[in-house]
C-alpha cells in the first residue's frame, strides 16, 4: 500500500520500471533463417547510417518527428526474438533496457501513461536500446466504444506510447507473438518489421549443436543431430528446452557421474516431453469435434442455478435474522444483569460509607470523653493542692 501511495504522488522509480541487461550474446550465438538474418543486417545498417541520413544529409531539418529507430520483431514463440534484441544491443555496444510490465501498470488513473513516458526518458538519458517484450500486452488495439474507465485508461496508454515513438531519438524494439493484436497505428510508426520464421532442417541441426558446449558436454557416439532435426520440426526455444531436459535425464542414469554421457535416446525423450507439455497447454474443455452445449439448455441451467442461489440467500437471510434476535435478547439480559450488579455494588458501597462514618463519630465521642475526664482529674488535683 505504501508503494501505491508513493506511485500516486511521485511515480514509480525508473529503476523499478526497467531491467538493465548487460548484453552477453551476439549474432554468432543465434541461428536464424536466411531471410530473417538479411532483415536484421538491414536493421543494423539503418542504425549505423542514421547519423548520415539525418545529420549529414539534413533530413532532420526537414523532419522533426520520427527521428528514432523502431523495430518490430514478430514470430512464433522460441524463434529467437529476445536473443536478437540482446544481440543487437551487443553489436551496438549499448545497454539493453527491458520494460517490466508488472511495475509499469499502476492502479492509479493516468499513472501508467506517465510510466511509459518515463521509460523512454530513461532510455534516452542512458543511450540504451529500449525493449518491449510481449509488446501486444501494452500496445494492443484501442477500444472504439469505451464503456468503462479501464477502457479509457488503456487507450490513453497506447496514445502516449505512439506519441513517444514519434519523438524518441533512440532505438526501441517491440517483440510479440501476436502481431495482429497490436494497434494498426504502430505499423506506420515502426519503421522496420522483421518476421522470425521457423527454422528449416539445416538450421535446426545447427541449433541442436550450438546448445551444447563443444568440449565439456559428454556426448555419446550414437547422437545424430541431423536425425533429430528431421524428426522434430520445432522452434529454437523448444530445442533448447529439449537439450536441457536431455542433460537432466542423463544425469539420473545409474553409475558414477564421471562415466555418464548424453545419448540419442535422452534427446528424443527430452523433445517428447517438450511436445507433451505443448499438448497440455493446448488442452480444451471440449474434445475436437465435440459440439458446444445448446443455448437453450445452457440458459435453463443458468436459470435453475439462479433459483437455487435465491433460495440459499433467503435461507441465509432467515438464519441471520434469527441470529440477530438471539444476540439482541442476550444483550438485553446482559444489560439487566449489569444494572443489577451495579446497583448492588452501589448499595454495598453506601452501607460501607455509612458504617465508616458511624465508626468515626464513635471514635470522636470517645476522644472527647477522654479529654473531659482528663481535664476533670487535673482540676481536682489542683484544688487539693
Query: Element order, helices and strands?
Result: HHEHHHEHEHHEHEHEHHHHH
Identify the CATH class of the largest domain.
Answer: Alpha Beta
Distance between the termini: 99 Å
Which second-level CATH architecture of the largest domain applies?
Answer: 3-Layer(aba) Sandwich
Mean pLDDT across every amino acid position: 82
Backbone CA Rg? 42 Å
Biggest β-sheet strands, sense, barrel: 6 strands, mixed
The shape, in one word, is elongated
Fraction of residues in β-strands: 5-15%
Low-confidence stretches: 1-11
Count of individual beta strands: 6
CATH superfamily of the largest domain: P-loop containing nucleotide triphosphate hydrolases
Molecular structure report:
This protein has 15 helices and six strands. It is of the alpha/beta class. It folds into three domains: 195 residues, P-loop containing nucleotide triphosphate hydrolases (Rossmann fold), CATH 3.40.50; 78 residues, Helicase, Ruva Protein, domain 3; 64 residues. Helix 9 links the parallel strand 4 and strand 5. Helix 11 packs across helix 12. The N terminus is likely disordered.
Amino acid at each position: 500500500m505504501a508503494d501505491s501511495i508513493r506511485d500516486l504522488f511521485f511515480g514509480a522509480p525508473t529503476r523499478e520500471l526497467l531491467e538493465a541487461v548487460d548484453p552477453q550474446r551476439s549474432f554468432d550465438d543465434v541461428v536464424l533463417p536466411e531471410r530473417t538474418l538479411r532483415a536484421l543486417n538491414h536493421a543494423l545498417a539503418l542504425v549505423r547510417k542514421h547519423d548520415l541520413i539525418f545529420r549529414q544529409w539534413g533530413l532532420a531539418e526537414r523532419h522533426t518527428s520520427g527521428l528514432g529507430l523502431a523495430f518490430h520483431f514478430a514470430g512464433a514463440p522460441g524463434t529467437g526474438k529476445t536473443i536478437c534484441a540482446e544481440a543487437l544491443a551487443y553489436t551496438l555496444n549499448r545497454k539493453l533496457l527491458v520494460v517490466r510490465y508488472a511495475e509499469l501498470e499502476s492502479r492509479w488513473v493516468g499513472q501508467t501513461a506517465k510510466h511509459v513516458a518515463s521509460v523512454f526518458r530513461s532510455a534516452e538519458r542512458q543511450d540504451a536500446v529500449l525493449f518491449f517484450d510481449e509488446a501486444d500486452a501494452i500496445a494492443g488495439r484501442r477500444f472504439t466504444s469505451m464503456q468503462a474507465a479501464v477502457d479509457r485508461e488503456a487507450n490513453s496508454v497506447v496514445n502516449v506510447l505512439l506519441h513517444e515513438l514519434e519523438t524518441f531519438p533512440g532505438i526501441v524494439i517491440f517483440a510479440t507473438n501476436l502481431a495482429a493484436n497490436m494497434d494498426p497505428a504502430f505499423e506506420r510508426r515502426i519503421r522496420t518489421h522483421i518476421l522470425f520464421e521457423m527454422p528449416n532442417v539445416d538450421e535446426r541441426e545447427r541449433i541442436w549443436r550450438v546448445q551444447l558446449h563443444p568440449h565439456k558436454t559428454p556426448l555419446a557416439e550414437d547422437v545424430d543431430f541431423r536425425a533429430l532435426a528431421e524428426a522434430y520440426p520445432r522452434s529454437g526455444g523448444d530445442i533448447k528446452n529439449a537439450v536441457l531436459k536431455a542433460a537432466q535425464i542423463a544425469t539420473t542414469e545409474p553409475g558414477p557421474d564421471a562415466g555418464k554421457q548424453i545419448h540419442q535416446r535422452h534427446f528424443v525423450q527430452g523433445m517428447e516431453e517438450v511436445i507433451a507439455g505443448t499438448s497440455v497447454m493446448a488442452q480444451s474443455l471440449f474434445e475436437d469435434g465435440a459440439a458446444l452445449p445448446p443455448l437453450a439448455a445452457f440458459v435453463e441451467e443458468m436459470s435453475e442455478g439462479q433459483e437455487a442461489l435465491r433460495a440459499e440467500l433467503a435461507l441465509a437471510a432467515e438464519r441471520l435474522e434469527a441470529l440477530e434476535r438471539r444476540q439482541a435478547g442476550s444483550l438485553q439480559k446482559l444489560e439487566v444483569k449489569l444494572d443489577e450488579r451495579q446497583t448492588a455494588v452501589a448499595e454495598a458501597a453506601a452501607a460501607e460509607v455509612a458504617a465508616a462514618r458511624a465508626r468515626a463519630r464513635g471514635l470522636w465521642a470517645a476522644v472527647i470523653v477522654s479529654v473531659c475526664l482528663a481535664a476533670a482529674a487535673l482540676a481536682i488535683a489542683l484544688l487539693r493542692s
